[in-house]
Amino acid sequence: MPEPVIEQSKESPTTSYVRNFINALIVVLIVILGYPLFTSTTSIYRAVLPIERINGFDINDIAFEIPVTILSSDRREEKEEVVVVDESYIQSQVSERYPQIDFWSLKFTTSSEHEAPGYKVVIVDGASTSKKFEVDGDTISIFTTPDTNVDEYIAEVLLDHVFKAELQSLSTLARGESLPGVSLPYSANYNLVFSLFVEGGKRISWEIGQALEQFQPVLSALLRPISSFQVSTQIQYYSKLSQLYPNGKIPQDELATFINFGDWNLGSIDINPTINFLIYIPQNHLEIEESPDNAFLVSQWGGVKIMNRMPTMSQSTISQDELVPILEIFANHLLKLLGLPDSCIDSVPLRLESLQRIITFKNLRDSLANLKSLVKLSESLKEITVPEETKQQILLSLDRMDQAIQSQSVSDSGEAVDASNRAFFEKKMVQQAYFPSEHKLAVFLPLLGPVGSIVIFSILKFIKK
Q1: Which of 75, 328, 406, 430 has the most Cβ atoms closer than 10 angstroms to its Cβ?
Q2: Higher pLDDT, 3 or 105
Q3: What's this model's pTM, rounded to 2 decimal places?
């Protein structure tokens, strides 16, 4: 039986040429337009970060030089003369005690009394007193005897007493550790909320406006170089405390639970941190154990003063004279919340200048830590997006860090740490933190699969033919 003859379809050369041209055109379009278009629409933008500049930044380039003038006082003749001391010896004592902070030094000047910047150390005959020294503003009086080694004595007073708290704080930060204490994270702006809480519901008013006029110099004069403050006040009435104290005593270990954060309206939605100062008037007499001023400090939150004064009439007023001593307590709380280290020195201006140097160095350290963490994150996750806004904030932070190195300004260092935080938590970066290839395949395979299979089989058929 003869085999059947399979007739092949006859196709005109023109039709074959058109089909081949179309196949070739499709391949060309895929290569020239399709693949680049797919790549551009599925690729993740990664801005080029200044990694070398970040890794090369050294916060120890800052130089805290504390100007000091040594004067010898003759009380009988009422005159002072400049004394030259062994600066190298005193600086060697700094290095010996605090080897981590080679960026801090005492700069001794030979200016006259009226022209001398910084601090004045006045050497006084101490035969009539048992005190080693005393501090009044920027003047440090050191009491010596004829057999006193002046260089050693000055080093001991300045390093082991006057600047001890500052040096210890800077040394702790230089080791990469956190400062102990109750201070809030630094901010260029804070909200201060003064609240009067009255138990029992009896109406009462307070002359807080007049009292705050005496509190304002602390904010405007002393603390202006560090931060600015927005002050507000409020009165709230409550029927009873969150818990009862039958003996009228609040133990120290129960202070943490005294404030009822759930029921008391103490929340804030402002972008700036809020520091609360609360005066609580209980219905019954209430005292805090081991607290002579009947007040306590809450870490990173604020201060509380319990005032045992209930209104005796339908409405009474807390006078300005009653509020001023309480505001003095709150002023001390505020300095601690801002990070003022504990010190044996009573001079607030001197301690605040130390605080400025501590905050400046801490902000520089935190800024650099944020930027290095961001670089490490971008290098470890290759699929993470790095938007242009992140790069611009990094550059801004680095510029402000450079300025802070030169100016030693709290504001410049504060802007640096704010910019580094904005770079790390950029919303475009957070929203698309990770977009792996499996997600691309899941999205585009249903769309490109059918089209791609037709194109591939057509190309294979064309090649075979």
Answers
A1: 328
A2: 105
A3: 0.81
